C-alpha cells in the first residue's frame, strides 16, 4: 500500500507540473486554427477581387490586393508571440518549482519509512539483544510475552546480518520462532545452524523435529535420516528414539516403534513421568501389530 500511495502522489504532482505546458499547447493549437481561417478568408476574397477585375469593376486592382494583404496581417494577434513566450517561461518556472517540491517529499518519505529508517530500527533492535537474552534466562519464572518474542526475532536477525556464521544464534532463532508459531522461519534457522555445525546433535534434533511434523513426505524422510544419524552417534539419545518411535508408529511400522520405546525405557529411571505414557503407547502398538498380523494371515489364506 505504501508504494501505491507514492505512485499516486507522483502522478498527481506530475500532472500539476505539466498542466501549464499542456495549456500552452492548447493555446497554440487555437492560434493555428485562427490563422487557417484567416488564410482561407484571404484566398476567398482574393478570388473575388480577380473576378471583379475581370469584369472591370475595379479601378486599381493592385491597390485592392495590397489592402487585402494588410487586413490579413492585422487579423493576426500582435501579442501572440509575446503571450506564447510568457506562457513558456511561466511553465518552466512552475515545472521547476513542483519538481523541487516532489524531490523534497520523496526525501522526507525516505527518511521516514525508507531504508535509513529501517536500518535505524534494526540497530535499536540489535542493541536490545542482551536484555532479551537475559529475559530468556528468566523465562521459567516469567515467560516471554508475544511482543518480546517478536522483538527477540528482529534482534537476532539483525545480529545474524552482521554475524552470519553464528550457529548458536541461528539455532536460538529457530527456538524463538517455534515459540512464536513461525514454523517456516524455525525450519530455515535450524537448517542453517545444522549446515554450520553438522556434528551438533542438538541442532540435528531440532531440525529433525520440525521436519517430522511437515506435510511433505520428503521432509519427513530427511528428518528420519537425521534421527538415525543422531542415534548412530549416540545410541542412548532419548529424544531421537522418541521421535523415531513416533515416526515408525505413524507409518504403521509397529515393530520399529516398539523397539525404539524399549530402548527408551532402558535409559529412563522407573519414576520418570514419561514411563507410563511410553508403556501405554507400547500396549497400543502391540494391539495394532496383532491386528496387522491377523489381517496379513487372512489375506494369505485367501
From TrEMBL:
GO terms for cellular component: cell envelope; plasma membrane. This is Cytochrome c-type biogenesis protein CcmH. GO terms for biological process: cytochrome complex assembly. InterPro entries: C-type_cytochrome_biogenesis (IPR051263), Cyt_c_biogenesis_CcmI (IPR017560), TPR-like_helical_dom_sf (IPR011990), TPR_CcmH_CycH (IPR056413). It is found in: Cell envelope. The chain crosses the membrane at residues 93-113. SUPFAM superfamilies: TPR-like. Residues 121-275 form the Cytochrome c-type biogenesis protein H TPR domain. Keywords: Cytochrome c-type biogenesis, Membrane, Repeat, TPR repeat, Transmembrane, Transmembrane helix. The keyword Aminoacyl-tRNA synthetase does not apply.
Amino acid at each position: 500500500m505504501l508504494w501505491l500511495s507514492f505512485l499516486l502522489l507522483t502522478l498527481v504532482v506530475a500532472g500539476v507540473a505539466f498542466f501549464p505546458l499542456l495549456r500552452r499547447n492548447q493555446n497554440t493549437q487555437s492560434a493555428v486554427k485562427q490563422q487557417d481561417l484567416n488564410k482561407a478568408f484571404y484566398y476567398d476574397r482574393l478570388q473575388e477581387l480577380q473576378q471583379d477585375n475581370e469584369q472591370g469593376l475595379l479601378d486599381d486592382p493592385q491597390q485592392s490586393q495590397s489592402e487585402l494583404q494588410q487586413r490579413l496581417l492585422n487579423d493576426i494577434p500582435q501579442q501572440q508571440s509575446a503571450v506564447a513566450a510568457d506562457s513558456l517561461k511561466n511553465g518552466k518556472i512552475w515545472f521547476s518549482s513542483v519538481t523541487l517540491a516532489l524531490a523534497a517529499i520523496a526525501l522526507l518519505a525516505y527518511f521516514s519509512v525508507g531504508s535509513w529508517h529501517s536500518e535505524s530500527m534494526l540497530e535499536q533492535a540489535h542493541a536490545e539483544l542482551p536484555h532479551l537474552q537475559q529475559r530468556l534466562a528468566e523465562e521459567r519464572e516469567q515467560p516471554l510475552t508475544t511482543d518480546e518474542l517478536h522483538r527477540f526475532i528482529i534482534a537476532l536477525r539483525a545480529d545474524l546480518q552482521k554475524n552470519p556464521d553464528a550457529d548458536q544464534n541461528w539455532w536460538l532463532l529457530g527456538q524463538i520462532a517455534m515459540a512464536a508459531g513461525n514454523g517456516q522461519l524455525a525450519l530455515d534457522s535450524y537448517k542453517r545452524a545444522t549446515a554450520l555445525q553438522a556434528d551438533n546433535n542438538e541442532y540435528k534434533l531440532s531440525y529433525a523435529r520440525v521436519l517430522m511434523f511437515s506435510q511433505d513426505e520428503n521432509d519427513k524422510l530427511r528428518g528420519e535420516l537425521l534421527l538415525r544419524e543422531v542415534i548412530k552417534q549416540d545410541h542412548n539419545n532419548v529424544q531421537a528414539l522418541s521421535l523415531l518411535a513416533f515416526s515408525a508408529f505413524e507409518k504403521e511400522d509397529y515393530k520399529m516403534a516398539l523397539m525404539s520405546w524399549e530402548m527408551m525405557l532402558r535409559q529412563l529411571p522407573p519414576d520418570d513421568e514419561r514411563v507410563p505414557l511410553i508403556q501405554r503407547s507400547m500396549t497400543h502398538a502391540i494391539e495394532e501389530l496383532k491386528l496387522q498380523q491377523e489381517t496379513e494371515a487372512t489375506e494369505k489364506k485367501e
